Input
Amino acid sequence: MHINLAKSAGFCFGVKRALNIAFQAAATGEKVSMLGDIVHNEEVVKEVKKSGIRKIKSLKPTKNEFLLIRAHGADLNTFNKAIQFGYKIIDATCPMVREIHKIAENMEKKGFKIIVIGDKRHDEVYGIIGKLKKKALVIEELGDINLRIIGKIIKACVVVQSTQNQEKVLKIVSGLKKHIKQLEFFNTICLPTRTKQNEIRNMPLVNNVMIIIGSKKSANTKRLYEISYSLNKRSYWINSKQEIKPGWFKNTHSVGITAGASTPEKTISVIIEHIRKIVAK
Output
């Protein structure tokens, strides 16, 4: 049986950069805190915790303490409050996410209503809309388009959460164009996400079984699984070797494997080795 690993599997540039910044900050011995998890992966979160970085629920007045801004970014209120309370900022926001902030802020200044296509409760989306002066409209699905609201918008700018499914996004944009006279669309799905999604649109067609590795909290991993499952029902989303069932590999000649942008290489290697042992029996 052949095991085919996607070239793009695992950490993206933004996650690698955020982790490097985090570990460098921890190595200084300074007091470093973080609101929430640096990325959506349990193993990575454990490593960051081991380094000495504290996860906090809220900001409090402090002295000589650093606040690490996570890869997903943060809203303007968080930045302002942190500085007001005495924190020194270490910004590990992914540069591609920061670019989305800039586009949205600039277009708002030009009088455009900002529409964000993304998961309403995702940290990245909170960061985007939290950088704006006026309330943005967040759309998750095509069915979220409310004509009573959309019909009142004269001109709008659409930006996209960086890990969204491109096919779904284009359908939503097409729907919006029917009702908004002047619409500027910025396809801000990041390059690593596009690369992963391009691979996952082919791999399920040429492999009997697909294994998608990543945390259930990971939006980009969820997207990879959804695309894979739509093409091959023998697609399985796991985060550890313990979740694997030997029966998945019966009458299987090839297994395709990919992993979300916050999945460590070590996790991928352990799972591949485990699969090899299963099929060798």
Q: What stands out?
A: The chain has a mean pLDDT of 95. The first strand starts at residue 2 and ends at 5.
